[in-house]
Amino acid sequence: MKKTTSRRLAFLSGSALAALFPLSAQCADTPPAAPAAPAAARPPVPKRAPDTPGYPKFTKLEKGINPPADAVGNFLVGPDYVPAPEAKVVDGVPQGKVQQFSMSSKDSKFYNPGIKREVPFGTVDPKNPRTVIVETFPMDYTRTITVYIPAQYKPGTPAPFIVTHDGPGLARADAPRQELARVLDNLIAQKRVPVQIAIMVAHGGGDAQGHERGREYDTMSGKFAEFIEAEVLPLVEKNYGVTLSKDPEARATMGNSSGGSAALIMAWYHPELYRRVITTSGTYVNQQWPFDPATPGGAWDFHTTLIPQSPKKPIRLWMGVGDQDLLNPNVMRDDMHDWVEANNRMATVLAAKGYRYQYVFAMGVGHSMGAARGQLLPEALEWVWKDYQPQK
Questions:
Q1: Superfamily for 3-9+45-384?
Q2: Which of 74, 90, 247, 311 is 20 to 30 A from 353, comparing alpha carbons?
Q3: Tens digits of residue pLDDT in 110-148
């Protein structure tokens, strides 16, 4: 285990997009093949109008205004955004420490070895158009765990915490990755969120079907939450002398794209561990691989069967999506790869089941929500913790 320390790092909730038909390399001793016909140009992602029939009904907010931190329902923001003041360093506000350590796949009982995909991307399974045939190979990898510890934390006290996905790499101290730490410094100082530790978990590499990131994030099971519980959290406590709360109401997850679906998957399959979730551009689409007949549509099943047909779970969910988010970005043409449609459907079924949720539809932004995220992140964090009451 390799360990380093840095003064200020934080999570930038970003992710790689689904693979877009990469070309395989040719061997040097193989005669060049005839030039392939150029791929058809992908049409630009359309702007989805918020008043489209069948979409949720949104409450329109003015420029720079976020939804109330105690409101439930659907809200419309943008296309002009105001960066949140909470994302700036403020004189006199205590600043937490951010430190990092590394984990090797060779030490994991859950994801050893990792996997990587051969190129090209894969082909649709002729026996099942809901999945793809992908050739994968084993690989070793190292993941970085980045830990924010607020200045107000008292050693020995069980701390609320948030697990975020797509965490930064080792020694990545560039300015955009300072965002979450700065926001938490300010929100904690203003008593808008509980004193909490942030645990930013890097994925194992690649993206989507056949890669380690896809296996970890898009699989509809409790395995990734169990990996975090058994292998990541104990090392956080050991390395930094902190105590992490066992109360599921004191545990949150957050992620973007497939990291967003992973955040909800953790809470859905293990609500005894996590009950507070934030997702941006959540990949609630058919991206699970390998195919699982229990959830044949992958995360698309959240809004078609799982949420509508299951008893309501004690989950509090904040979601955001852009009007120009992804639409069908890979080889599958199954009508289950529209990120806007998926998030709209999520809002509809959550409302029907009486969930505590807040959904923000952001105009003028695409995947990962761009400038909208810079305005909304503090409000999302405040909202997801709004009803938290420490155990006595």
A1: Alpha/Beta hydrolase fold, catalytic domain (3.40.50.1820)
A2: 247
A3: 888 877 887 777 778 788 778 777 878 888 888 999 999
